[in-house]
Structure prediction request, 180 residues.
Amino acid sequence: MTPIGLFYGTNTGFTMLVAELIVKEFNEVAPNLVTVYEVDRENLKQMQAYDYLIVGCPTWNVGQLQDDWDALYTQIDDLDLTGKKLAMFGLGDQYGYPDNYCDAIGILGEKFAERGAELVGFTPAEGYEFSHSLGVKDGQFMGLALDEENESEKTPERVVNWIWQLVEEFDLVEYLEPVV
Ligand SMILES: Cc1cc2nc3c(=O)[nH]c(=O)nc-3n(C[C@H](O)[C@H](O)[C@H](O)COP(=O)(O)O)c2cc1C
Prediction:
């Protein structure tokens, strides 16, 4: 059993690729801490088994959740995530959908917070071009916003920086790979 569970949904595969990148980069920093799930009706309740959660959801259909998360949304009400730290990441298209960029980060993040999870992994909204997002609170994304449509070249650095942030906010310093 690893301390971190990563649960993602994807319609066209990009979020899966980012989930794989997150695990790869996490392993560079602190190996074997993350178990990955493509979320479904069966494994959703497994979220309760982890102290630390990473959740990935792209925004679809103009400000809506990805299909699997959308279908599972009401089932989240049955979860008790009290005491868990949860970090959201989301994919979107800031130029195609500037009024709804990465809305899913906020929609799903608020839902998990209602179930008792403490949201961590917030990042600055500067450096992106969009006009509105439900994923932004007090000038920050409530997680990590990524845009594989327009600036995939920025994703690796954003992911690595975020992982170091999570190591601190999840308090995983004891698991760090020793520097030789
Ligand atoms: C029909 C359609 C609607 C979309 N709606 C939004 C949106 O409202 N907000 C946003 O930020 N991105 C939106 N996107 C962009 C997707 O989030 C983006 O392509 C993402 O990388 C898809 O991730 P996936 O491959 O994991 O499903 C939309 C894309 C399509 C094709």
